[in-house]
## 1
Amino acid sequence: MRKPCCDKQDMNKGAWSKQEDQKLIDYIQKHGEGCWRTLPQAAGLLRCGKSCRLRWINYLRPDLKRGNFAEDEEDLIIKLHALLGNRWSLIAGRLPGRTDNEVKNYWNSHLRRKLINMGIDPNNHRISCKNPPLQNAANTLHSSASSGSKENAKKNEPTKPNHDGEKSCDLVSDAASGLEDESHSLPDLNLDLNISMPSPFPCVPKDNQKPILESEARSDPHFFSSPTLVLFQ
DNA sequence: AATATACCCAACCGCACCCAG
DNA sequence: ACTGGGTGCGGTTGGGTATAT
């Protein structure tokens, strides 16, 4: 077992104070993002480097777009999840100003439920036997089940949707493999993800962003097929 | 009004990957 | 080729808030 990334003793944990935030912002503005391990000490923070990195990436970065997800962002997340599975960082990489944590939370709290309400198994994006799709399910994507529909969630779903409890019609565990027959899984959703490189993506990563692994891209025929991401036709 | 329950989100944890030495 | 440190990622947790009873 490897050593913890930092000495846990004498380290602050939990919510960040405004002073801590300011120290981190000031330091990064002066010195940029660098060695996270040494940053806390240099910045005068009693935090471990991982905590600083997370705070910066998920909350303090100036280019973050905070607030509700737009409808097109929701659609994009759903489509990318069908394509990529739980690879939140990859998904977030296609949503400017969004973080993997934010996307993951939004998926778990809103979109999962939305798909379940539509009768779609969120794990593999196929129509679920237990929850047959509502009529015009796809049309409800942005209406009845839209974010905050706690009413619907409570009426139509057990309180804690278990991760594997919902068995889909066919046992396809890999989300990406569900794409083999997309038309069955996502009615009315255009999954024709023609992704390639509008500026940096995918071959040239942004500053701190990993490129898509070639192997990942290779395994997906949609990658590198066109210069634009045509999603909403 | 008080209590219980559900929901949301920030943060933590541990593992995996990458890369320099 | 191997090793260990640094970093990134995904899963999970805990606390605050909203809603229901």
Note: The first helix of chain A runs from residue 18 to 31.
## 2
Amino acid sequence: MILEEIQKSHRHLTASEVYDLVRERLPNISLGTVYRNLEVLSDLGLIRRLDLGDTKRRYDFTTEKHYHIRCVKCGRVEDIDIENLDSLCPKGDGDRGWRIIDHNLEVLGICPECNHNANSNKQNKEETHV
Amino acid sequence: MILEEIQKSHRHLTASEVYDLVRERLPNISLGTVYRNLEVLSDLGLIRRLDLGDTKRRYDFTTEKHYHIRCVKCGRVEDIDIENLDSLCPKGDGDRGWRIIDHNLEVLGICPECNHNANSNKQNKEETHV
DNA sequence: ATAATAATGATTACGATTATCATTTTAATT
DNA sequence: AATTAAAATGATAATCGTAATCATTATTAT
């Protein structure tokens, strides 16, 4: 059910978001069980752990390599269409004896909603100053 | 002194590493003061906050845009020489109404030391199996 | 010298994640 | 079916990095 909810949501859920969704179907499930199974599912490659620059880990229904954009205001994460960068990253034991495993690219920005809120706040502020 | 230690170290220090270094000169400084001043220094652009994929934030003596490689075993972070990716990332309000601010690229790997340890462990294990 | 402002140290609070552990569930074996 | 072993679960506590609080001290301006 944890897997189903993640795949159904088509979003990049945090553990507690998954917890809330699954609890609608399994009201007694504990947060620990959610964490444990998120771990299992990502180890199995059925979902993908996203350790991006913010504090909470997210889980991606898509397991293929791709990149993300994160809103620095509200934390929302979405996919972003940027070409695969494998060719730019050193391979194998390329870089000063490091064995390269993977890479992550995260774009930071402000999402349309937060942008809109910022603009209306600005306008309100100007109005009150008239 | 916090700034000095970060610049002197030429590493990518965590808050508690900075704390330990600074405490050698100011034994009574508190961790809170370190955190507060790390915040101030990065707001001033004198150091750069690194919010990479691991749990602890790091602070970079270099403020120019560049990328990092992190060891998934020991957490060590070093600079990595990859060309600037600004041209790949959408600009301004480019992507579905998002206002783009920045981007981070983090390469993951195993550092030479951890590689070496893994190899000697492997060797030990094989020897015990003889 | 005095008052206002800011910074500090000490401590607590917080939020995400992990660990523990007794209990329950599942699977395997008789 | 009954019995046993193994695994998963819920409840809870522990951990760890960071942020917030607050009384005290230091700095600055008047």
Note: Chain A has two domains: 1-64, 68-130.
## 3
Amino acid sequence: MTDVDTALHTDAARPSRREQILRAAAQLFAERGSRAVGVDDVGAAVGVTGPAIYRHFASKDAMLAEMLLRISERLLAGGVERVAAAGDDPLAQLRTLIAFQVDFALDNPALITVHDRDLGSLPDGDAAQVRRLQRRYVEVWVGVLGRLHPSADDATSRARAHAVFGLINSTPHSAGRLPRAQMAGLLAAMAEAAATS
Amino acid sequence: MTDVDTALHTDAARPSRREQILRAAAQLFAERGSRAVGVDDVGAAVGVTGPAIYRHFASKDAMLAEMLLRISERLLAGGVERVAAAGDDPLAQLRTLIAFQVDFALDNPALITVHDRDLGSLPDGDAAQVRRLQRRYVEVWVGVLGRLHPSADDATSRARAHAVFGLINSTPHSAGRLPRAQMAGLLAAMAEAAATS
DNA sequence: CCGGGACGTGAACCGTCGTTAACATCCCGC
DNA sequence: GCGGGATGTTAACGACGGTTCACGTCCCGG
């Protein structure tokens, strides 16, 4: 299909418009919150007027939806892949999961912020889909944490997982103040200590 | 001053209106985000029409401002007080800080959520004041963490503090699934492990 | 008992913002 | 080189939401 061709061309090859828009929007949404950012602001950020956006997205909500869906999919896919590649040792799996999440959080503090702040301003359908993906990602962690703490029930493992997410996803609050490598090491060490405690 | 008298009377004695409104607003803001909540919604939540709110608050922003200021002040005051009461041992200080923050996070998940999601939708002046209070609270933690890790610089301690906040403040994401005492124990243990790692 | 302040109400005002419409422009393939 | 699709622009529409207004009611102190 020419559809797919075009899509591949525009989406991947050149980082063109649509992608620029998504990136700029992510930045703005993270800074001010999606509801506080106007279509005109997003347009201006890529050197275009507001309504021009509707050539690339059906609506503002659709923009936010695609953004959140991508993040959730990336996290889930990455998590599954890392765990699978880590062999059978739960501790090794935990370490690779932590490293993965830390990298993501350091590379995309803006996405982290938007991800859990603006989920609520999403149309019900999309919100549900994002939540499904999030839940599956959490379950990956729950599995690993469960094997690491055989006596703990799933509810405890889930709470532990959320706590570790909170720890690692603190990057938007403490960003840039520390060299990346140092920050990565610190977060990884803290996360592992917390997860195995 | 009659001012103070009245304030004390209305604010403390009876949990009347103004207070009801603040509580209801906190709940709604936490669920949907302050910008997605209309004045009418807040009014309806306390059995009153929208405009009635302007008998108690100068504006919607003023409501949010008072909410965030109170939280920040409560945290700072509580933190300072606990540390002072804990003697000289940095580990004892850390433990009491953690217990304090865990209690707060478990008692007020809604406030936690609003606190760092809606700070951005605050008039510049109020936002700055809230940030000042936050900073001072963080500094309390930084002091303790610094004494606990003598070789670490302040930037590291600050990052550590934010990470621990993220860990403990994960309560809105994993609320209610675990009995409170169990959740408190889990979070405290994880936080201590992370902070001392 | 009566005058005023606290508290509410419904209606109207007005700015903001997402979205659409009508109209250009540019460029690529036939 | 010509027609059409992709991409933008400006202007306008319509809804929503914060805020104000004019008007009631209730109650309490002199």
Note: Confidence is low (pLDDT under 50) at residues 1-13 of chain B.
